[in-house]
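<purpose> Linking amino acid order to shape
<body> The protein record starts here
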Amino acid sequence: MITISDVAKRAQVSRSTVSRVLNNQTHHIREETRQRVLQAARELNYKPNRVARSLKTKKSHCIGVITDDIDTPFLPSMLKAIEQYAFSRGYNALVCNSGYEFDRQKAYIEMLVQRQVDGIIFAASFVSSYTQELIKPDLPIVYAYSFSPYTKKNSVLSADADAAQQAVDYLVSLGHRRIGYINGPENVIPSRERIKGYQKALEEHGIAFDPALVKNGEWEEPASAYKAAREFLALSDPPTAVFAANDVMASGVIDAVTDLGLRVPEDVSVVGYDDRDMARFLKPPLTTVRLPMAEIGSTAAKMLIDCVERGETLIDSAYVPCKLIIRGSCAANSR
């Protein structure tokens, strides 16, 4: 059986160097040395004994991932990125879907702890207070597109406020000053962040905030935005543009404009948020903010594994930038 000593001899390095390279602990190891070790391992067809490694390092090289709803449209790209990054670092990812059930989430946490995972990522998941009672203090936890109980620590979020501001800045650059905004539910972090960006953009452009131009809808209910848009367009001074806090609601806005005999973008410009697959197939294709879910996933996995390998539990939060995707649903204000 090929051993780590055989790889070290072939690569002409120490056993400890081979161990560090194969465990992706390559700080202070030259790239040429790393490649020589990897080449030697390939030539000898060396397969690390994971059980022995786990006993020696007291690490399972497995991370848990808990999410609320695996069917959420943007979630697969985040989960895929978590798994891919974890695999690249020599870790497996065990994904658990709680289905928004507290008892089920609790059972999964207990199962992951019993399996001695090296850390847990809560991915787009509501985190209940009892998690602190179930998880030992030295187990690293990262919150990906989820709320962290630690101030400015251990969370990976999209830069929603900056992105919303960028979207409104774009509309203002096209000459729009009456800009309606349809937010998501008031009690969730993305809604709170996105309206901050909307208000900041108005302020910086010297546009007075008008409460009549702000309404709340439901993320997955285009009818909620349809109703809000009809109300906007019935005002004596209606908006020339509407910014919806996600693409599903933006589709409802487009339907409302069309049903009133108006045109997008000639009469009303529309901007969405998320850049779901549907956005480019709307009529007209939707200008929207791309939510960087894959980047959030890989960043969260890196953050967690870095904590595991450094023996840390707290790490600075990260905010991943979003990108405005310009398509055909916006035009210069002609009013």
